[in-house]
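Tutorial handout. Part one gives the primary structure; part two gives the three-dimensional structure as tokens.
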Amino acid sequence: MAVSELDPRSLIFVAGLLGLLCLAILFMMRRSFPPTIGGLVYWSRGLFGMVIASALFGMTGVIPEIFCVVLANAMLVAGIMSFYAGFRHFAGLPTRARMMGAVLALVTCYVAWFTYVDNNYPARAMLVTLTDTVLFYACTLLVARTTGNTIAGRFTCMVFAAIGTISLVRAGMLMTALDTPSDVLGATFTQRAYLAAMAFSVLAITLGAMMLANERLRMALEFIASHDQLTDAFARTAFIELLTKEVARTRRNGRPIALLMFDLDNFKAINDQYGHVTGDRVIIDFVQRTREMLRNVDSIGRYGGEEFVALLPETTVDEARAIAERVCIGIAAGGSAELPAYTVSVGVAGASNGSAEVNSLLSKADEALYRAKANGRNRVEFSEEEIRPVLMHG
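Part two.
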């Protein structure tokens, strides 16, 4: 069936039905997804507003204009604003609720004026459509800037860009009087095309939101699976996988690689004297401070208990020694006054000329760490295959 043969009231009914279906889906997602996945509440409210707007628009000529015109347009704009607020919340940005509330109030007053003072459907439809256009393009830019590098982000951008362009064309035709429907049920081609686009955009926007939410949940689950929950350092298995990939890369390009292995000195005494809660805070403090002393390309993982490892890509043994000394001295210098003072022993291992082996690096780093602990702790040591040990005292 061609667009020109579709009844506007039927299109509005379809939009409302699709909105109800999408609202039910988002409601179930809200109940099953963790609260850390932002945006779902706002997207649900947005769909609710659009469903109510569709129902009110569909009863044009049956109920008073305060409902089917003024309230319907307000609910439509508020629904799209809620989608925009949801994407801002999803991106961790302020929702700008006050500003959008002020704009909504002005739009509602404008619609009321051109309903009761000067009954002019094209004039009120033009402003509402322009407002929606701005919101659609704002959503496009926001999603492109925050999640546009993902499949879900690109899909959502395309949806908002498409409906924004359709809205802009409609606003332009209303502005130039190329389209002059008498009301929302006006049977012009442009009016029908716009209503059809709005109906199916509800489903497409919801699909994009669902894809973004599922993508964020997958990333969160992958992070939980690959990271230590106490410190956010890589978990042992994930770190070894990372090390394996880096070793394979260094073997291909012949670049050096280094590994540091840390052990918090006398950590059992800290637990016994201050309790396990303080012990956990010490471990968290160590990872945070060590990250600050490592480079952006370096990675830290929790090897077990109070033992940690750091991967230093394209790093010679001498460079690794300097980094290890910086960490050893920095930790011994003390951090938070709320935590007991502690020190760390460090074992250094490295390989060059593409000769790295995962097990060999771990074994040599572990051997060097054992020597650091046996020789008095709070120091940097190397395996017997490396250069002469450099003693570190606080």
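Part three, for discussion. The chain has two domains: 3-225, 236-382. Residues 189-226 form the longest helix (38 residues).
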